[in-house]
Design brief:
Elements (H helix, E strand, L loop, with lengths): L1 H9 L7 E2 L31 E3 L28 H9 L1 H7 L6 E2 L9 H7 L7 H4 L12 E3 L10 H12 L9 E2 L2 E2 L3 H16 L6 H13 L2 E2 L25 E3 L6 E5 L5 E4 L14 E3 L4 E3 L13 E3 L8 H8 L7 E3 L10 H10 L5 E3 L22 E3 L6 E3 L12 E3 L5 E3 L2 H10 L5 E3 L22 E3 L6 E3 L12 E3 L5 E3 L2 H10 L5 E3 L22 E3 L7 E2 L12 E3 L6 E3 L12 E3 L4 E5 L12 E3 L4 E4 L13 E3 L4 E5 L12 E3 L4 E4 L13 E3 L4 E2 L15 E3 L21 E3 L6 E3 L12 E3 L4 E7 H5 L6 E3 L5 E5 L14 E3 L20 E3 L6 E4 L1 H4 L6 E3 L4 E5 L9 E3 L6 E2 L13 E3 L4 E2 L15 E3 L6 E2 L13 E3 L4 E5 L12 E3 L4 E4 L13 E3 L4 E2 L15 E3 L6 E2 L15 E3 ...
Parallel strand pairs: 9-11, 10-12, 11-13, 13-14, 14-15, 15-16, 16-18, 17-19, 18-20, 20-21, 21-23, 22-24, 23-25, 25-26, 26-28, 27-29, 28-30, 29-31, 30-32, 31-33, 32-34, 33-35, 34-36, 35-37, 36-38, 37-39, 38-40, 40-41, 41-43, 42-44, 43-45, 44-46, 45-47, 47-48, 48-50, 49-51, 50-52, 52-54, 53-55, 54-56, ...
Antiparallel strand pairs: 1-3, 2-4, 5-6, 7-10, 8-9, 68-69
Helix pairs in contact: 1-7, 4-6, 18-20
Family: Belongs to the RLP family.
InterPro entries: Leu-rich_rpt (IPR001611), Leu-rich_rpt_typical-subtyp (IPR003591), LRR_dom_sf (IPR032675), LRR_N_plant-typ (IPR013210), RLP23-like (IPR046956)
Subcellular location: Cell membrane
Length: about 1300
């Protein structure tokens, strides 16, 4: 042993030349790689070159690593304890290695300069400290994972370690050391001499380097490598390799310090593109132990991995390997692998046999990551065969299916387990119990989207108390969450989101926020927290950094104190529509980086202190109730990247505060009331990609600098009051892709420089006042153009300029030139092979469209409506779904459409002069949903084969000359929603098969010759809202004993001009639920009849849809009026021109949502019931031409929306009531009643007017009159007003137009007041 010490002092380099021990030694491995198992508490190894160490928090609290990353090429720290050193010296293999020249050099563990070597060489190996060798069975006290990156290999990197070693060894002669090997002394000097001689040989070779072969291999690889285009990950390592320097100094290269072999190669994230064939120069690096090729593109024509026998770390993540068989056959040979990462190679498939081979051969694995590798053919029962040494297992999105085997939980050393995104994997309650019972070392568990619907939430109580990171997103957990769960006090992150039926009540939520003192990430999105009081959040741990509670159904007021949590970085409360609150005023700065309150009920003015959130990167206040102006302190948010204020009540000018927001990428002020011009400080937003200022009241020109913002890709200014013009674009942005300027008042021509924005894909300039001519030369510059909409610019024209053959428009998908003064079909589009939607409606195209003009297109939607076409050749489009030929001059037979039968969805040919029958070929459109042939002169019988169209939603054949009966063509599986047969010559009875139309909303068979009784059997249809039977020969009495559930949605019933007789059905009026008790808030929500039809159509058409507008005719003021688009709030009862007799039922007064009531031209008698005064919404009342008697009830004066009253030709007597709307009616309302007197009749009443109990005094009456006439002003023409208003606000027409409508309403109110004052003064 003395010789050993002498050699150490003379040649300290021998310590890095020790020979390789046998494989059973747990500290020494090939070429200094310390990847074997270490002490009992070995470190987890990460997949990207890192050791994950658990350490107590330092000053700056480390953030949790939600998924531990593993690097198996890094050796664990050497155990310098007495027990560890004893193992080092006492191993017989070590001594054998010293005398065996066949072993390759051994590199000792890398120790810091902390005296460890001194202990190693000088301490007595027999002295043991029992406390040092003890393993801590408790969980580590750390709260997170700290990632420490170390180099590959075990060489000593700092020379002062060697100096310290020399110094220590120089002092060693003062000590008496008796080295013992396996209990026996080295008794003879011969052994020492032999040892001395052997180490001398080793020392003579210490400086040998094999430089040329390895340099050549690396440079050859560099020369055969290319780089991927448009790659943003590249570290450009390979470009830095300098041939004049030692390759061991190159970045990404790690060498063995003894012989200089390349043992580590890290080329990850370099965007390399190369072939790894068997001849690849990389395979000449035969001593390679660690290889990282992640995030590159390597084709795998063939491999040579078997040459890397010593490989322990392999990372091929995101390398686009596709040939599974070759790759896995090679990997099976790498028996020393400790870490394997093949994740995110989407073409890889691992079947059950290959997986069995993997787990059989790779017995040293401690880390296995196969995320996104297709393992759908792997039986889950194969998983238990994985090596028991496994510490990190990640099989995310591997398409595993079936029951999870319980034996897998015998992998008791697992520190991290990720089985997320395997939604076909079932984990029941028993298996989960075993998981939490056996995996006691588990610190990271991710089971996102694993089916845990059979797991009782109380099973979560048994999870190991060591757990730090738990994610159970979308696991179908259900029931009440156990409060005891929150005793996992080491939790750093918890994600229970997307468990929609998991219930968390107030008491249980107070426990987590109180107990989980280490919690920094809490994500409960979509968990039912409707029973949790927002004030419970006041108990949140001060360490909280990330709090996400979106879609939780939180209710009440949110406490402002939560905004002041000292470490809070993200707060997401979005989509809790019943959660209110406001942004607090605060002079303190904040750690907040993301504040998301979208779609909540937060309100109030934006505080000036919002400028104190100087770290803020994302601010989303969209769809809230904030009002007022934007504070100028917003300019302080210089780190902001996303700013969203859309759909609030904000107003005023957009402040000029964007000068220093250089990082802003997304800005939205959509749907507010901002006015003024676009602020010029937006010029500084050089990183802005999305700018949305639509649906405001912005004025002025369209600044040309908007089109020069260097990063802008999406510009939305539609629905404003911009007047333009669009100025010359001086520096066109070559990134801009989408421009929306529709529904403004932009005038002038489109400058030619606009078409220098050559990367535009979507341009919408519709509904403006643009002028001038657009030439094909301009359009052809937009080579990437996909959607172009220039509709509704009546002074804008398109020039063909005779060179159409030269333009192809290769990417054009949608072109809309509606109302653009076009005179001929744009045949230049024949080369637009991708064109799917063409709208040239409402132009001046005349004559015939020939087949050659439209050949070559692959249209799915064609709109030629509202032109002057007289004919169209037979044409065929393989994928045509919608064709609109409405309102042209087509004559003769219906067009022959030689298209694929199963492609056609919507067919509009109404408003022409067609005279033929419906061809049977139309019945071959198997999936037809809309067939509109109205307003022609089509004849014959309705084809029975139309009943074969089971997907048909709309059948509109009105105003034609069809005759015969309505065929029984409605099967039980039909989808009919609207049936219009009005204005034909149809006979017979209503087909009873209509009862099968469970989705039917509108039935219009008026103005025919149908002869039947009242179809009470239609009452079972749950969605029926409109029934028009007028002007037929329906007859008989209406059954007065219909069930109470009949006609639940009926809103319009018109049976006028038939032969019905008997009493009015009083019980019938009781069941009409659709005409009573419609809440004011619901009136806005109801929309139009058939709204969801448009959604159905939209599903089968392109983005621009040809809306079918349902319409019916109603009688108002004695004449018919057509209602285009039927508002669901419109209600009408028309029983006029029949033979009803008897009194008017009091039950009519219960229909308090009724707008129109017409019982005229019958033989009704008795008095007008006073209950009609309860019809508060009534606009029109026609009781004329009956035999009514008595006085007009004073209660009718309460009908403040009444604008039409006709009581003429009855036997009424007495005073005409005065006040409110009655002061606006003329003589015509009362003519033919000889017993009536008073205003407006010239006949004066002799008897005094009965006292009115309606008003208490003159002053009050005037006030009430003013209020009620304000309402009456809105009531005048309610049908028209609501229709226009609803359309304006739903389609988002310019706010400036809406403002004009509001002014018009105010004038209307004033006019109604004036009428009343004049009328009242006359009476006085």
């Amino acid at each position: 042993m003395l010789s050993f010490l002498i050699m150490a002092m003379q040649s300290p380099g021998f310590l890095v030349q020790l020979l390789k021990p046998k494989e059973n030694n747990r500290y020494m491995t090939e070429a200094g790689n310390m990847l074997g198992s270490t002490a009992e508490d070995s470190e987890p190894v990460a997949s990207d070159g890192m050791i994950v160490r658990y350490q107590p928090p330092v000053e700056e609290a480390p953030k949790p690593v939600l998924k531990p990353v593993i690097d198996s090429k890094i050796p664990p720290e050497f155990d310098a304890s007495s027990g560890g050193m004893k193992d080092f010296w006492m191993n017989i293999d070590f001594v054998k290695a010293l005398v065996d020249d066949s072993h390759i050099p051994f590199a000792p563990p890398d120790l810091h300069d902390d005296g460890a070597w001194e202990k190693l060489l000088l301490a007595n190996p027999f002295l043991e400290n029992g406390e040092d060798g003890k393993k801590d069975k408790e969980c580590p006290t750390d709260s997170g994972m700290e990632v420490e990156v170390t180099g590959s290999g075990t060489h000593l990197d700092k020379s002062h370690n060697f100096e310290l070693l020399l110094q220590n060894m120089g002092n060693s002669h003062y000590l008496e050391i008796e080295p013992i090997v396996n209990g026996s002394q080295l008794e003879t000097s011969e052994n020492l001499e032999l040892l001395t001689e052997q180490m001398g040989h080793l020392t003579s070779e210490s400086d040998h380097r094999d430089e040329i072969p390895k340099r050549s291999a690396l440079l050859d690889f560099k020369s055969t490598t290319n780089f991927l285009e448009f790659c943003f990950l590249s570290r450009d390592i390979i470009q830095t390799w300098n041939e004049s320097k030692d390759c061991c100094s190159w970045e990404g290269i790690t060498c063995d310090k003894v012989k200089g072999h390349v043992i580590g190669l890290d080329l990850s994230r370099n965007c390399l593109k190369a072939n790894l064939t068997t001849n690849s120069s990389l395979f000449r690096l035969e001593k390679l132990q660690s290889l990282n090729l992640a995030y590159n593109h390597f084709s795998n024509l063939s491999f040579g991995f078997d040459r890397w026998k010593g490989l322990t770390y392999l990372n091929l993540s995101s390398s686009r390997y596709m040939d599974s068989s070759l790759l896995f056959d090679e990997i099976f040979l790498l028996s020393k692998l400790v870490s394997l990462d093949l994740s995110y190679n989407f073409g890889l498939h691992l079947d059950n046999i290959k997986f069995q081979m993997l787990v059989h051969n790779l017995t040293e694995l401690r880390s296995l990551i196969l995320d996104f590798v297709n393992m759908s053919l792997v039986v889950p029962s194969s998983l238990p065969n994985l090596t028991s040494s496994l510490e990190h297992l990640s099989l995310s999105f591997c398409q595993l299916q079936g029951n999870f085997p319980s034996q897998v939980f015998q992998l008791t050393k697992l520190v991290s387990l990720d089985l997320s995104l395997n939604d076909g994997l079932l984990l029941d309650n028993i298996k989960f119990q075993m998981l939490v019972h056996n995996l006691t070392e588990l610190r990271f568990l991710n089971l996102d989207f694993v089916n845990m619907s059979l797991v009782v939430p109380s099973s979560l109580l048994n999870l190991t108390s060591c757990l730090e990171h738990l994610s159970l997103k979308g696991c179908s957990l259900q029931g009440n969450f156990p409060s005891q769960f929150f005793q996992l006090m080491k939790l750093v992150s918890l994600d229970l989101s997307l468990n929609y039926v998991l219930l968390l009540d107030n008491l249980k939520f107070q426990m987590p926020v109180h107990n989980l003192t280490e919690l920094r990430f809490l994500i409960l999105d979509d968990v039912n927290m409707s029973l949790v009081m927002p004030s419970s959040l006041l108990n949140s741990t001060s360490s909280l950094e990330h709090l996400s509670l979106s879609f939780c159904d939180l209710q009440g007021n949110f406490p402002n104190q939560v905004f002041q949590l000292p470490f809070l970085q993200l707060l997401d409360l979005s989509y809790n529509s019943h959660l209110g609150g406001n942004l607090p005023e605060s002079n303190q700065s904040s750690t907040l980086e993301s504040l998301i309150l979208a779609n909540t009920n937060f309100s109030g003015e934006l505080p000036h202190s919002i400028g104190n959130l100087k770290l803020l990167k994302e601010l989303n206040l969209g769809s809230c109730q904030f009002y007022g102006s934007i504070p100028r302190s917003l300019a302080n948010l210089t780190k902001i990247t996303q700013l969203d204020f859309d759909s609030n009540l904000l107003q005023g000018k957009i402040p000029d505060v964007f000068e220093k927001m250089h990082k802003l990428t997304y800005l939205s002020f959509f749907h507010n009331s901002f006015d003024g011009e676009i602020p010029t400080s937006m010029l500084n937003l050089t990183h802005l990609t999305h700018l949305k200022l639509s649906s405001n009241k912005l004025l002025g020109p369209v600044p040309s600098w908007l089109f020069s913002l260097p990063s802008l890709s999406h510009l939305d200014l539609q629905n404003n009051c911009l007047t333009g013009p669009i100025d010359h674009v001086k520096m066109p942005n070559l990134i801009l892709q989408e421009v929306y300027l529709s529904n403004n008042m932009i005038s002038g021509s489109i400058p030619s420089s606009f078409f220098d924005l050559v990367n535009l894909t979507i341009v919408d300039l519709s509904s403006n006042n643009l002028t001038g001519t657009i030439t094909l030369d301009m359009l052809s510059r937009l080579v990437d153009l996909e959607d172009l909409d220039l509709s509704n610019n009546s002074l804008l024209s398109l020039s063909n300029n005779g060179t159409a053959v030269n333009y192809s428009f290769p990417n054009l998908r949608s072109l809309k030139f509606s109302s653009c003064n076009i005179h001929k079909f744009p045949s230049f589009l024949r080369k637009a092979e991708k064109l799917q939607e063409l709208d040239i409606s409402k132009n001046k195209i005349s004559g015939q469209i020939h087949k050659w003009e439209i050949e070559g297109m692959s249209l799915s939607s064609l709109n030629l409506s509202y032109n002057f076409l007289t004919g169209i050749d037979s044409f065929g489009f393989e994928n045509l779904e919608t064709i609109d030929l409405r309102s042209n001059l087509l004559q003769g037979s219906l067009p022959s459409l030689s298209t694929t039968w199963d492609s056609m969805r919507n067919l509009f040919i109404s408003g022409n002069n067609l005279t033929s029958e419906i061809p049977s070929s139309y019945c071959n459109f198997t999936f037809l949903r809309v067939l509109v042939l109205a307003n022609n002169s089509l004849g014959g019988k309705i084809p029975k084969c139309l009943g074969n169209l089971s997907d048909l939603n709309i059948l509109d054949l009105r105003m034609n000359k069809f005759h015969g009966g309505i065929p029984n063509l409605f099967d039980k599986n039909n989808s009919l929603i609207t049936l219009h047969l009005n204005g034909n010559q149809l006979e017979g009875i209503l087909p009873r098969s209509l009862v099968n139309c469970s989705k039917l909303e509108i039935l219009d068979v008026g103005n025919n010759n149908l002869n039947d009784t009242f179809p009470h059997w239609l009452g079972v249809l749950p969605s029926l809202q409109v029934v028009i039977l007028r002007s037929n020969r329906f007859h008989g009495a209406i059954n007065n004993s219909m069930p109470t559930f009949y006609f639940p949605q009926l809103r319009i019933i018109d049976i006028a001009q038939n032969d019905f007789m008997g009493l009015l059905p009083s019980n019938y009026f009781k069941i009409l639920k659709g005409m009573r008790d419609v809440a004011p808030a619901d009136k806005v929500k109801l929309g139009y009849v058939g709204d969801y039809i448009q959604c159905l159509i939209n599903a089968s058409c392109l983005a621009s849809i040809y809306f079918y507008k349902d319409s019916v005719k109603v009688t108002m003021k004695g004449s018919e009026r057509e209602l285009v688009r039927i508002l669901k709030i419109f209600t009408n009862i028309d029983f006029s021109s029949n033979q009803f007799h008897g009194p008017i039922p009091d039950e009519l007064g219960e229909l308090n949502s009724l707008l129109l009531l017409n019982l005229s031209h019958n033989s009704l008698n008795g008095q007008i019931p006073s209950s009609l005064g309860k019809l508060a919404e009534l606009e029109s009342l026609d009781l004329s031409s009956n035999k009514l008697e008595g006085r007009i009830p004073e209660q009718l004066t309460k009908l403040t929306f009444l604008s039409v009253l006709n009581l003429s030709h009855n036997e009424l007597v007495g005073h005409i009531p005065e006040g409110n709307q009655f002061s606006t009616f003329s003589n015509d309302s009362y003519i033919g009643n000889s017993g009536l007197c008073g205003f407006p009749l010239t006949k004066k009443c002799e008897e005094p007017r009965p006292p009115s109990s309606q008003f208490d005094g003159e002053d009050d009456s005037i006030a009430v009159f003013e209020w009620k006439f304000a309402l009456a002003g809105y009531g005048c023409g309610l049908v028209l007003g609501l229709s226009l208003g609803y359309i304006s606000f739903t389609i988002g027409k310019p706010w400036c137009i809406v403002k004009k409508v509001e002014k018009y309403q105010q004038k209307l109110v004033a006019r109604c007041k004036q009428v009343w004052l004049i009328s009242n003064s006359r009476e006085i």
